[in-house]
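WARN retry 2 of 3 for item q-0093 after timeout on previous attempt; input resubmitted unchanged.
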Amino acid sequence: MLTAGDSAPDFQLASGSGNTIRLREFRGRRVVLFFYPKDDTPTCTKEACSFQDHLGAILKKGAVVLGINADPPRTHARFSEKYGLRFPLLSDETREVMKAFGVWKQKTLFGRRYKGIERTTFILDESGIVTHIFRKVRVKRHLEDVLTALS
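OK item q-0093 returned
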């Protein structure tokens, strides 16, 4: 499991726009990397729209936003278009990146055990070092915490 001070694992994933995004392309900029369970579900939509609503403030702090889940790129494209999201949503269909970041976990819901994404946000510095980790994110006040961490 990653901790603050670790180097973020590099990755290469397809985006909803059809481009391949490599984490190393963002060296020299801070990165807000959020892992979320599913496109176009109520809580995930609130989270993504919250990042979109505060995108200007995040960009002013010298950071970019990237979202990752296991949905295919075409689903990301529809989700981005529907809500006007102007940051890349990346598709980790093999779940290798989620495993590398330690967010693919055993979960329990109504007594049923299953594997799934633990809603988590990482902030990386300009060198790709993890500076902040927000695990088991509660969406309501999350952006305030992210903006504070970027200050």
